[in-house]
Input
Amino acid sequence: MVDRGASASSLPEDWPAHPEPILALNRMGGFDWDLDTGQFAMDARAHEIFDLTPDEYDGNPESLSPRVPPAEALRLDTLVTQAIKDGSENYGAYFRVRRRDGGLRWTHTQGYIRRDGTGRPRRIIGIVRDATDELRDLAAHREAAALDDARREQTNVVQLTTAALAHARTVKDVIDVLKDTHGLIHLGATSLVMGLVEAGRIRLVAEGPQGSFVPGTLVTGIDEPYPMSEVVRTLTPRFIESSDEFAAGYPVLWPHITGLKITSAAYLPLIVQARPIGAMGLLYSDRRGFTPEERNILVALGSSIAQSLQRAMFYEQEKDIAQGLQQAMLPRTIPSVPGADIAVRYRAATIGGSHGRDIGGDWYDLIPLPGGTPSGAGRVGAVIGDVQGHDTHAAAVMGQLRIVLRAYASEGHTPATVMARASVFLHELDTDRFATCLYAEADLATGVVQMVRAGHIDPLVRATDGTCRRLSVPGGLPLGLSAEFGCLDYPVATLELDPGHTLLLCTDGLVEQPGTDLDDGMRALAELIATGPDDVRELADRLIDVAEERGGDDDVALLLLRRYGTDASRTGSRLQQHVAPGDPEALTHARHMIRAAVRSWGARQRSDDVELVADELITNALMHTEGAAIVTLRLLTGLGRRLRVEVEDSSSALPRRREAGDSGVSGRGLLLVDLLSDKWGVEARGGGKCVWCEFGAAEAAHR
Output
């Protein structure tokens, strides 16, 4: 404590013979304590401070004992003794003086120790003053400072809570913020309860601490005698300032919470646009009453919580609508496909590090195609795709794309045509979204798979020995963009899916990770697949579990197709494809299909002959008729293994043998057919015809 005006060090050497006038001006008294004689001399102001008259004091310090309580005297003696002993030049202390009316008042003293040349203390001169007003002001200042600190702390908690609530996207997020150790508990609350208004009732959504739940309060009526019901009815906060007030006001509730030792409580209505959406209660066990500032802070907190809850409710409603829309757009069931095991999975993204799920445009589809075989193995189209964005618009675009892709594939178009038409469709939707996609058309009897890729990631194949490799599929621009820039050429990749092999199609959410290269992600995925279970459903679950553990802000769609490893699929195999007129890629795709099928059936030495004859028959059908051609390739197993090529068109005109001549550019087609095939012929088919030819396939028996 800093003294004002004068101090013991400012007293003259001959004091009190010439007292310092400044002492009187500052209402201070002086003393001179002769340590050799023990005499303790005081001036008139000092007598007033000790509430003594001059005739009541004889200069002996013992005469002050009626005015200085024993505890205070002991503390002063200890202080002075220690100052003399350790060589200090001065000391100071606050102590209490008992006035003649018995009351106590605070006094302050400061002494200056004078020593001789040997360092021996000989004299103490000093001052005493009434410190009552000073300490009262100091206490008031400290109380105000403590109140300011408490107010700042509460305001800081409100600000931190409000900031945390800004990131809450669901009602659960809001509750977690409020129950967090850095949340409302810093306001000193012993217990927290919160309820939401639903259909004229209040449903409890949060309570704490654990074990504080009151039976019968999970769902309560707004007209029931509970404090949360009251604030919802009146739209007015309820501040309960004592346990007696709580017990008297809410006799039904009070007996159930006596174990919490509640001394006060604050119940706040959660109001949005003048409508109550719920209520919150803060219960305290170490305070009584609330200052106006505390009430204002709590009311402001209630308003912030109400806004966050309303925002969370809107988000959950929008999410439910979006998820419902997406689920409606995705296939309800995946058809059973003879010749293969199928597994599909979908995982919604987790956005912003929250636990809430967002909606996206990822999708999968499995499309049964015409052209099955007598053995039961069928043809199927597998689709995986991703529309740009995470909102209801992305889901709606996804649904439309899925439908048109299914329609184009079911009509028998080649994979490249399916992809090109889907791109044109998306471009004509006049949306700002594009989509990546991969379409694979598989003949499960032969294992021939034709794939086209529109900006999508490559597929992977796992062999029966567990090894997994990435298939490098040449691709075109994403759907929508290819039509916009006029680049509708989608190259077709053909592969043979051996029995027991698994084809995996997925979206980039399963591969891409922050800070990781796509190639590294594909290698990591291949390793994960290689070490995964053989069953496609268990493998799909494993991959989705890994994606779930990793989190991420992108959806994951996954389709696994495992071809059966039985010999039955190799008997009576059949492969069919439509070749449309005016489609320059159709003939090329048909050639790829025929070459891959013939080789997979074990007739590799005849593949050139079969391909050349089929090419000639298809070209003739396209040149001399007005419609499309349908090419069918069969493996016959009756009297010896034979390959049969059928080309069907809509014209009833039969082909004629003609001599081409030395310079003729046509007329050689049937000559090639007759020369290269073992036998050929023509059959009537409704309003059209079918030209067929057969080739011996003895190699197939040794494959």
In short: The chain has a mean pLDDT of 82. Residues 85 and 374 are 116 Å apart (CA to CA).
